[in-house]
Design a protein that fits this description.
3 domains, binds zinc ion, single chain, alpha+beta
């Protein structure tokens, strides 16, 4: 169906239509030769016969089916995926045992399990209660240091913005207090949890917590944006203003409403883009092509090193045109 629609739209442009057919033939050939791998849930293909470009990426997460014909690669759903499906590091511990995991939207990976023998739980004959308690505290501190070492190693392999702590009793709080500030500020959840909770349960609990946390962060970003607008701070909002800032390389973080599209146009010769419906370029008078202006801005921002944050439906951001940016300078 999309194929027919594209073909109709290209009817008056034989060279583009030819490129479309050839590019699609490469896609078909790839699909015929490469059946999905066992754990593959998504597939992204970029194909352009004219530029002799073909790239395939197999993903372990599902994607919405989409075919987009554009003059440059359509990357927005992928950028979005990166933002939403970030992995989380999870540490579950008591004073003698720890389990480390990384959790992402579709999987839990057990990374490490360790335990120590801490002098036993009961007072040993001859040892005073005080001395026993002191030794026990030392042993717990040493154990936490050990777990911190493992956590640091884990974060080097799989960078996670968020760390969740779980476990029974107060050990998790003591562990939190022992963390260096750089790691401690990434701990966004501390929850009571049985040490032997099954992995499926970990995923269920932490993925939903991560979704809540993601929404909370979205809201926090929008609130900072609103506050900065009020004091004329280092921010931009609305498509025009943000796009100008992106072009000038000023954007540090781009806030975009998930799934928002803006009808726009571009002139390939003049490299001019604009919002709305137009058939000819205001500078050179030649025909322009239609495009999603939001997608275009997101793409340019990523190319210029801006960090992307997709915000799920937020009325305040939508009132600002659905797009905002934190700037490096003005
Ligand atoms: Zn033009």
């Amino acid at each position: 169906m999309r194929e027919t629609a594209c073909r109709k739209a290209l009817a008056g442009k034989p060279d583009l239509l030819e490129n479309f057919d050839l590019s699609l033939a490469s896609v078909r050939a790839y699909l015929a030769d490469n059946p999905p791998e066992p754990k593959q849930k998504g597939l992204v293909l970029f194909s352009c016969a004219k530029d002799e470009c073909f790239e395939a990426f197999r993903l372990s997460v599902p994607l919405k089916n989409l075919m987009v014909l554009d003059t440059s690669p359509y990357i927005r759903p992928l950028a979005r995926l990166r933002d939403d499906w970030e992995s989380i590091a999870v540490v579950i511990l008591d004073s003698e045992n720890a389990r480390l995991f990384t959790v992402s939207s579709d999987r839990v990976t057990a990374r490490k399990k360790n335990g120590v023998y801490l002098l036993g739980k009961h007072k040993k004959g001859g040892m005073s209660q005080m001395r026993f308690q002191r030794l026990r505290r030392q042993a717990i501190r040493a154990f936490h240091k050990d777990v911190l070492g493992d956590l640091k190693k884990l974060l080097r392999v799989e960078p996670a913005d968020q760390i969740f702590l779980g476990g029974p009793g107060i050990a998790k709080v003591q562990f939190l207090d022992s963390l260096p500030p750089g790691i401690r500020k990434r701990v966004t959840e501390v929850v009571d949890l049985d040490l032997n909770v099954p992995e499926g349960e970990i995923r269920r609990r932490f993925v939903s917590l991560a979704a809540v946390e993601e929404r909370r962060q979205d809201r926090a970003h929008v609130e900072v944006l609103l506050a900065e607008i009020l004091k004329d701070g280092l921010v931009a909002h609305g498509w025009d203003e943000v796009t100008k800032a992106v072009r000038a390389g000023k954007v540090e973080v781009l806030l975009v409403t998930s799934g928002l599209k803006l009808r726009g146009w571009k002139c390939e010769r003049c490299k001019v883009v604009g919002l709305g419906d137009r058939s000819t370029c205001p500078s050179c008078g030649k025909p322009v092509s239609e495009m999603d202006a939001m997608e275009r801005t997101v793409k340019e921002a990523t190319q210029r090193g801006a960090q992307l944050e997709f915000v799920a439906r937020d009325p305040d951001l939508e009132a600002l045109g659905g797009i905002g940016a934190f700037l490096r300078y003005k």
